[in-house]
Amino acid sequence: MSSAQIVSATAMQSKLGITPIPQAPYPGTARFWPGPLPGQPGSSQDVKPFAQPSYSIQPPVPPPITSYEPLGPLTPPATIPVWQDRTIASSKLRLLEYSAFVEVQRDPETYNKHLFVHIGQTNPSYNDPLLEAVDIRQIYDKFPEKKGGLKELFEKGPQNAFFLVKFWADLNSNIQDGPGAFYGVSSQYTSSENVTITCSTKVCSFGKQVVEKVETEYARLENGRFVYRIHRSPMCEYMINFIHKLKHLPEKYMMNS
User: Fold this and answer.
1) How far apart (Å, rounded) are the C-alpha atoms in residues 164 and 2?
2) Which DSSP letter does residue 45 get?
3) DSSP 61-76
4) Which residues pair with 202 in a beta bridge?
5) CB 138, CB 159: distance < 8 Å
6) CB of 22 within 8 A of CB of 106?
């Protein structure tokens, strides 16, 4: 049993170079503090010019400057974001949180909630290891090959936006199944661009797609970044029934087989 979630945007450094300055016969605009040279009088001292001779001496005329290109502002080297290559993120979109859960309302203000899976990426660190690279051809057979399948999407790119996530689902829940139980999925994303995202959740079994759910989310500007939230999206009946079958297996070890 395999499942995949593909997120796409519908609307979805350079080497530091310094141009050399031609050597001029006299100084132009100074970009350093002209302090006194060792052994020379400083600006605070009273320095008299040499006495002028009684006859005129024509100083040599400096050659004209044919061109002058001012030095532009220095651009610091780009800093690699801490989340790059350490979290589920592309250059445009980053996953902050993902969870699948079941909850039952005990009273008007109290809910009993159980998390099947939770992925949180809110505080990555440079000390975190880089993600392991996986050859995507190793999992092609677990996803449909027809139009719109994983292979076609990967070839279309961007290829740095594809991630394989493997996790253990916690089915040890004391919540009783019944009409009051809500099975849901919540996810949160962030981007530096204001785009519209389409979240397609597909459930695949033995290389065949059995169900798909498509949701569209628009950006909300928060603290200078655009945030996308899909909150309490109902889980499909196929997955709910699959969870029920796993929980009612004769032996728990069978869940992992």
Assistant:
1) 11
2) S
3) PPPPP----PPPPPPP
4) 4, 212
5) no
6) no
CA-to-CA distance for 6 and 118, rounded, in angstroms?
Answer: 17
**Tokens 């869940």 correspond to what residue?**
255
Q: Minimal CA–CA distance to 217: which of 240, 186, 238?
A: 186
20-75 pLDDT tens trace: 544 444 444 333 333 444 444 444 333 333 333 444 455 566 666 555 555 555 54
The stretch 7-24 carries a mean pLDDT of 45
Question: What b/e sequence results for 194-223 when a residue is b if at least 16 CB atoms lie within 10 Å of its CB, and e otherwise?
Answer: ebebebebbbbeeeeeeeebeeebebeeee
The closest of 6, 169, 144, 161 to 93, measured between CA atoms, is 161
Peptide bond into 158 cis (omega under 30): yes
Distance CA 153, CA 165 (A): 17
- Tell me the C-alpha distance between 195 and 119, whole Å: 23
